[in-house]
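Service request form, structural biology core

Requester: graduate student, group of Dr. S.
Request type: structure prediction, single chain
Budget code: on file
Notes: please return the result as structure tokens.

Sequence provided:
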Amino acid sequence: MSKRNRNKRLPEPCASIEVEALVHDGRCVSHCDGKVVFIDGALPGETVGFEYLATHRKFDEGRVTGIHRPSLERVEPRCPHFGVCGGCSLQHMDATAQIQAKQAMLLDNLEHIGTVVPESILSPLTGPAWGYRTKARLGVKYVHKKGRVLVGFREKRRSLIAELSRCEVLHPSVGEHLDALAELVNQMDAKERLPQIEVAVTETVSALVFRHLDPLTQTDLALLTQYGEDHDLHIYLQPAGPDSMYLLWPETSCLRYELPGQNVAIEFRPTDFTQINQEIIRQTVDRVLQLLELQSEDSVLDLFCGLGNFSLPLARQAGTVTGIEGEAELVSRACDNARLNGISNASFHVADLAGDNTEAVWAGRGYDKVLLDPPRSGAAKVLDVLGNIRPARIVYVSCHPGSLARDAGRLVNDFGYRLKQAGVMDMFPHTAHVESIALFEHG
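Core staff response, request fulfilled:
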């Protein structure tokens, strides 16, 4: 609750209200006394009682206090911390209904923001609903009033660390041991100067990166080493920025994930950006290749290429692949991964894709196919480059339906593309995140 609303008299709770629709942050929208209200814990079609949490000029916020008529899609949340922890927002909704709701959000955004409608809908990509999260950044806080350390995600709509004993969506090698991890930090001399733990898991390695603000004592180093040995975890330390990270235990560590369908292995550092759901990313790579319909002579441009997750599988089937990425470290890692996989027809370049690249050397070449995999802000600044190149096919992998819809509207309405197909991937089950993919054809 905001500071302004703490001292503000809130309206009396509504005895009963009809819930209308799910919105982008996992809450549901309804109306009470003619005013929009966003309600935590409700599902579309339900009749609920709720209490107000905050009031604003154009809308109010609340949370469910009772379910008078439940949705058929309502299920019992698996996690005992659901509703307090902000890591998940949809555990009370059946998993199949979740992905259907995300598909509906995507289509609604495309129609109302981009004024475009796909010619056909792709079937959703789905995978494990629990223990799927292989990347995470956990907050750490020593709470004097409790006399102990908390480790986990932040509370829902608050900056406080939630009091968690386990996490059902985090990989079990870490998610089942949050209480033990908190107890480890609680024993350390640096317990008040250790703000976060980064998690990175592969099929063979589970790694923890401990960010610490002061040098660690020999006692702390011994505790961390013993914890790594006892729990079969690779322990890294990060005293400053990401470049300062180094391995404490064991003597060597290599994190890599496999894309067996393309005979590609991707090596990465624990602090590198990688997708959190390895099953879904493998399916997504397969779908990208299917949609691009690559030919052996094709020249492909991969924008926002990262460390080569899509570029290297593309290079297995295309003539040449040019990967562009804003972070020099990731470009270096992509080059290393190309050498690791014996791939010589992929080149990688650093460029700020949020800036003007119309005069860049790489932008002046001809490309048959393009892959876009931008951040949440979308690919607005590189659309002018694509307007000049006019590739036959563009596949757009998106982590935000609003920015995809905006960019799709421009590709279709300004550059003459057709939105052939679009669909969603369940990269983040039990959250409101919508990951999607779209195919555009020119002419």
